[in-house]
Amino acid sequence: MWFLCVFYHRLLDFRKPEVEALAELFGEEIAENESLQWRLPEHHHNDTPFHFVQLSSEEIARNIAKRSILVKGMYELWGEGTCYEELKESILSYPDSRKLQFLTSDSTFRISVETFGKALTFEEQKDRIQSLTYIPFEGRVNLKNPDHNFFLMEMIESEENNGLQPILQRRIFFGREVGFADRKLLPTFQLKSRTYLGPTAMDAEMAFLMANQAKATSGKLVYDPFVGTGSILVSAAQFGAMTMGADIDIRVVRDGRGPDCNVWSNFKQYGLPMPVALLRMDNNLPPWRSGLKEIFDAIICDPPYGVRAGGRKSGGRKILRGTVDPYTVPDDKRTDHIPSTGAYSLVECVHDLLHLAARMLVMKGRLVFFFPVLRDETGGEVKFPEHPCFKLVAVSEQILSSRYSRVLLTMVKVEPYSEEIKEAARLMHLEFRENHLKWLEDGNIHSSVFKPIDSSQIHTDPKAFKDPKPKYRGKYV
Amino acid sequence: MRLITHNMLSCNIKGVTNGFPLRIEAGNVIEKEVDFNPDFIRHMFAKLEWKALVEGARSMGYAELPEDSPDAAVLESDESFLKKLHHALLELHLEEGALVCPKTGRKFPVNKGIPNMLLHEDEV
What we know:
Chain B: Belongs to the TRM112 family. Chain B: It holds the Pfam family Trm112p. The complex is a heterodimer. Chain A contains 15 helices and 17 strands. Chain B is α+β, with helices and mostly antiparallel strands. Chain B is globular and about 50 Å long. The mean pLDDT of chain B is 90. At the A-B interface, helix 9 and strand 11 of A face helix 2, strand 3 and strand 4 of B.
């Protein structure tokens, strides 16, 4: 069945992957290398809020809309057209067998008018509703809590569309609401009212998107190896998952900013079950017992990119560079000794993350993480991290500045962890240790993001600078 | 720190091959109630090292778990067993104490419920 899916105009790259992940979560049968079928309305550009998607049942559409962050609503389309005459013809030709059951005299209904591109006065809205008298509504109107909610949506043409893609031709849709979003979710969880925050705490909207990409749900165990203040785990817990996190910085994880301002209090704030475990450990040298594998249903994280917050791993800076030999801590100082840590390049960090995921995820489990990319990659495709156990199923870009973006990568584990993979990872781990300095320099994007612009690159001719993404694409769109 | 976590950890000091299970030195153990989710418990059961769990539970003052790992049929039918397992895995907390490596005796401290598994410079 085709449904009209209306999106919020935000985080455009993230929309379809979210719906696809949720469709799978709610039982939509999607074949091996296929995805959902999508269709655009006539004359509409891909960034339009209106998309048609094929789903096997109304229940799945309703569940997706309820849990989704970017879907405003799902509708059963009764008609569409470029003007009200066309709309009327379209609605009249829609089969009665699909319409009459929702128009019965013992039901209540409401018709809402929504316009994109222009605001209508109350009179204009009333006129449009009156024009629908050819639909045999027999029930009573109930504006507060109707049995059936109908929407008349109009996308009005204009040349200057607030910097958005200009609408070439007006289009009107009329549909029965099948599912709608939970609008209370984001205001409740927004970071500005969160008890314990850190500089890299994940934005609530994005954290929920990540939890949706990972298909977090009741009965599943979700792990964040860079837990920090727990912002990602909070969202996973809200969707019912059991959570677990680790971090190398003990102050963030154990102490927080006080007994009422720490990771635990973040969960308490929303009445969510506490994480199953919080650990201090180094992902580069994890303390998992040998033989432990396939225990997490999903790994969701935001690894340190090295731009605003750098990663750390065991071994002091001087030891890793070879300036100083590994030293032995005298026994009497051991209990309070705080081990020194050295720089952890992005490349090695991601390698360790993929290795961890390959071993610890269940089959078909999902790894969802952010990866930074430089924006002025002239020619040449961006290379994303790869691993033989994983299949990349979604890539969504969030623009952070003119210099760089981050992409949310969703990978599904399709091959089991083997001895060969374990051995290859062990060799790579040694390679990183042997050539510590080289990897530090090559494996970081910090310098590229913060280096001053080379004056020879400033183009005097504005047209010569091609920005591949349209003007309205920014951090939140 | 809960027993479910303890069951996953081992000592990873360079050169130590069998650092599992870590012996629990219980300083302060408390009990916190957690909602019972039978699906989650069943899913976790398959991943557990049973002997380590039983010993760990004993160190924390809980001896109700059977010595031998029960077979899968028990999981489906016996809810009281699942509840005991739930209690052992999720409701017992080690707030202060240490995890001790069986080979080297190295102590990994547990403070405010969080185990510190970071290695010192000469153990890496």
